[in-house]
Amino acid sequence: MNLLLYTGILLALLWWIEPFSFPFVHRKNPGDALELWLGQRGLERKEEGQLPPYKFYSELIVTILETMRKFGGSTKEALLFVREGLQQDLQFEKRIKELRLGTLLQMFLMALITWLFIYFSLKVTEVTVMKMGLLGIFLWQLLGLLLLPLLMGYFRKRYFHHIGRIWKTLFILKSLERTPLPRSEVFRLSGIQDIESISSKKLGPVVLKIKRLCHDCLKLGKSYETDLKNLMEELRFIENWHFSLFEKRLGGIKLLLLGLFFLPSYLGFIILLIGSLNL
To answer: Which residue, 48, 81, 204, 210, has fewest beta-carbon neighbours within 10 Å?
Structure first.
């Protein structure tokens, strides 16, 4: 294989791992499409059947529209709140994407530098090395690149999966707060029973506060508007804190992969080159 072939394979792999990493390729993000749908709904007639699917937001919008249709009420305020939350979510996804893309580009550049070094070394020395040895170096780097999205997916689920479930519950509670729907039905639709199993050290107290809030609302008839706002601020703080942890873990993963799969490639090639010179 020549240098161009290796570079082409690495570019194809980068495209497979991060399809939005190339500036000349424009692909519509479902979240952006949904945000555009919410922005245009006030200007033209939009049916929920046309909703772009994105996380729990599409399901939430359908729930709001169906509830308002059955029981009455204005959807404008509720959908405006959903749109604001969606915009914050898109900003969060952008931060995740920038971290992922930055790490991928660093690993790609390290691999490219390795193969430039190999190419010019062979060109200058005019030594023929074993093709299987070069293939082994390439497959070792390929394994490192393939491990990156797997490790990122694991840590992303670990830090943000449960937070997403809680956000869904809080968004439904907030969106249906002023509807004529019975509070017990609002709590059922919010899926409070689905988050009871969350026992995270940081998220457990938030879940407990949500349950207590709903209990007080049903038993004492009090409003949950202020408490809900405080809970959302607390969850946003936890989410930002988890993002900082995720960023640190990603930095550690990057150093591990570079040190284990890319830097040793130089040493492996030098050993391969010296072995060929002795033949």
So the answer is: 204
